[in-house]
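Researcher: Structure for this, please.
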Amino acid sequence: MIVLGIETSCDETSVAILKDDDIMVNLISSQLLHQEYGGVVPEFASREHMRLLPCLTQKALDQISISLNNIDAIAVTKGPGLMGALLVGLSFGKGLSYALNIPFLAVNHIEGHIMANFLSRDSGLNFPFLCLIVSGGHTQIVNVKDFGDYDILGRSVDDAAGEAFDKAARILNLGYPGGPAIDEFSKNGDPTFHYFPRAKVKRSRADFSFSGLKTSMLYLVKQKGQEWVQGNLPDLCASYQEAIVDMLRTNTFLMAKEKNISTLVIAGGVAANSRLRRVFSKEAKNLGIRIFFPSPEYCTDNAAMIARTGLEMIKHKISSSLNVSAVPNLPLN
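Model: Predicted structure, token format:
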């Protein structure tokens, strides 16, 4: 079974081709033009997807010397994401599936991030497990019982962890995307330099709140001034990052202990954060919990995870994953 995967949910245009569980090719084009604006401009993202998607698809086919006639199914991200960007990928994929008369698979982007951990053949990962999803716009703790069988235990009530990184980076004039920049500066900083607040949500011990953390950074910068910020930038980044990682760690392992979970999976772009990987690996080892991280190239948005989810959908004989009306716990917006 050869599946063509297409990902256009935000500012990465990606095309991948999987043959069974083997990744034949996975191409990603990040739209660097958004850096000038400090964030993603939806209209620009849509236009770039329109320009790049046909070229990337042909490049992927040429790279492994096959034609569209060799493709057995097409898996495309259906959401959540930017509406215009999603429509580009969906329209392109539907057109190909109609022309080739092959199955079209509509994939939930968040489910794709979960399935990214299965992209390595020797991972040894099996259902069930607990998953912390930390992508740019989503932070959720999910009890993954089986493919398509999910129970959300906790989520952010405001900003996601990735948004907290990006907004702090904007305050500190570090550019976009903010997560990698803060992670890099933090490597030379002291995480105990400044204590940022760790918010707790009253309605649920597993829920997150990151908006106050961002506000705390904003007020601190205004109070101390840019000269002080530049003189203490690595320490400031390390302290801010530590607060985010600490909140993620506390709630995730609380749920792992309450649910008696023996396997923990991390998914999403923030899963590439070096401090998060060290802290979570140490805590998991202390508690005797197996922990899995995607390879760094599969943490960010990519089509390989979409194609891999499509393969699982074929096994389960479904054409659209996580229908929003059937599974309200994983919304499409």
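Researcher: Any notable elements?
Model: The beta strands are 2-7, 12-19, 22-30, 73-79, 104-108, 129-134, 139-146, 149-155, 263-267, 290-292. The chain has two domains: 2-116+298-315, 126-293.
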